[in-house]
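Run: sequence + iron/sulfur cluster -> complex structure.
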Amino acid sequence: MLLRTKGKPINIDDHLVGTVTRNPDKLNENTFLLADDCVPDLMDFNCLGMLTKANLTETILFDRKAVFNIPTLDHLSEGDIISVGNDGNINTLYRVNSNHNTLLATERCNSNCLMCSQPPKDRNDVPLHYKIHKKLIPLIPKDCIELGISGGEPTLMGTLFFDLLSQIKDELPNTELHVLTNGRSFAWNNMAEKLGNLNYNKVMFGIPVYSDYYQVHDYIVQAENAFYQTIIGLHNLARYNQRLEIRIVLHKQSIPRLTRLARYIYKNLPFVEHVAFMGLEYIGYTPHNIDKLWVDPYDYQDELGESVQFLAGQGMHVSIYNTPLCVLPESLWKYARKSISDWKNDYLPECSSCTKLNDCGGLFTWNLKKHSEYIKSFN
Ligand code: SF4
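>> structure
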């Protein structure tokens, strides 16, 4: 799915953020006009600017803002929210017809996981992202059901992280917020205390714990002391009544101790609201580390089954993400969720004839290149 495009900018000297419309009657100071081929008389409209596929000459626009020569605008729906940069880049920030919208806090991270799907970049991008989100959040429809925050590591925003949460809480009080963090920053009690002071019960923190043994977890995330920091962070967050989810990516490093990790979670982290066992994404670092990571999901059914059944048996809420039904025993189907965001979700050709197609979460688009050898349609 296309989420960014580019054209030739005119008179754009800062990042603009606004809602798109093809209807000139809906234009206001927070909207962009999409004009596929025709070029309306811009001077009549009060808006952020025009985006068009047409090939304009700069002289007809005078001082009006526009991006022209854009290859396609077909991916944009009425009401989507975009950012437009002075380089002509047009990024889709919020898709009005999707429940899988995520704000990227920063691409910086203090870990460097073997299977990171979005490898960190060491540049200070926080001010730019924050500025864009500050403009974006008030434009998001108030009936937005769910919103994510991811990174990199969002807590590296420092105090701006709490400002961002506070703004979302105020602007979108009914929206469920899901923050993906490695939790290490919350080893410092004052970070967890600040969250407690926000008194924000719509936010859930998804935090990875990959092993019950510190050396294995630290190796997987490639960061010394990460295990202890994450576990202390989880306890600090629980102390301030934060809603918590444990996320476990399933691969060659995590599988051998998986059943012990399940018992560790029950004994030491019983306050978490949800435990998610997650199939491996074949993107980012994973293709480079594939020898250290790949286990066919079919081959870890026993470990996964025992771990899931143990936690569920103790009354914990458990899910399996990113795993097709045909590589799971039927006893685990009730835990399998359609977890993959719509813009990166795909199926194999044989899935089209499968009787379980509507119940199955399928694969990541990039996992079409690397998937279980046991995928087989139900007839
Ligand atoms: S064949 Fe395709 S649709 Fe059917 S269970 Fe397997 S992955 Fe899912």
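>> summary
Residues 72 and 216 are 46 Å apart (CA to CA). Residues 324-326, 347-348, 350-351, 354, 356-357, 360, 362, 375, 377-378 surround iron/sulfur cluster (CB under 6 Å).
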